[in-house]
Design goal:
single chain, mainly beta, Lipocalin, ten-stranded antiparallel barrel, two-stranded antiparallel sheet
């Protein structure tokens, strides 16, 4: 995930992992290995995201840094084309300003697909590759700018967790560079929908992750 969202997101390397999503027969949904979760299919990945998550996000662009809180809930929704999940959340800066997030995840043409949507309804598409207990997300269409995120799943004291590392090329104050993002999530036991968390905060963070110059730090 959680781009990447703007839990989109920081690793400056791309592991050489193929995008084949063949399922191993005779395996359970999840396999605990080395204190982590092992995925055998795209459906395993989607099930791992289900639930409510809370955590912190750090972003960096050169010498500029910012930190915020992120809450997100993933639920399965009805679909005639196989499993489909929806993510609804909110990123809140240290000053209390926030931006809502929404996304959909599904399998299309045997490719694990993440559909990110802005408030105005503009969609960005990513494809995911399974790497043992992590998922690597890159743009589905090659004409997009450099954009990469890897979500690492593990269990800490019985609680599912996600560490997301990513980077995205943006234009900020007439300078092109990498926006690095690090996000840490823990699954909430309460299951409270993320859409209800921080719902009293209505102001939006002025941030544009599509190459524009709208990124503001320290909000």
């Amino acid at each position: 995930m959680f781009k990447k969202i703007y839990f989109i997101f920081v690793c400056l390397f791309l592991a050489s992992v193929g995008f084949s999503q063949d399922k191993e027969e005779g395996k359970s949904i999840f396999s605990l290995a080395h204190d982590g979760i092992k995925f055998f299919s795209p459906q395993d990945v989607m099930r791992a995201y289900l639930g409510s998550w809370s955590g912190f996000q750090e972003i960096r662009f050169g010498a500029n840094e910012a930190r915020g809180r992120i809450e997100i809930t993933y639920t399965e929704i009805q679909s005639q084309n196989g499993m489909r999940i929806m993510g609804v959340g909110r990123v809140t800066s240290s000053s209390g300003r926030s931006v809502p997030t929404s996304s959909y995840m599904y399998v299309e043409n045997n490719i694990l697909t993440l559909e990110m949507r802005t408030e105005s309804g503009v969609a960005s598409f990513y494809k995911g590759a399974i790497d043992f207990s992590s998922v690597i997300w890159i743009p589905k269409y090659s004409f997009m700018r450099y954009d990469f995120q890897q979500d690492f799943f593990f269990v800490d004291k019985g609680t599912p967790c996600i560490n997301a590392l990513g980077a995205r090329e943006i234009l900020y104050r007439n300078k092109v560079g990498l926006l690095e993002i690090k996000t840490q999530f823990r699954q909430l036991k309460s299951g409270k929908p993320a859409s209800e968390i921080n719902s009293a905060v209505k102001k939006n963070i002025n941030i544009n992750l599509d190459g524009g110059s709208g990124v503001k730090f320290g909000e």
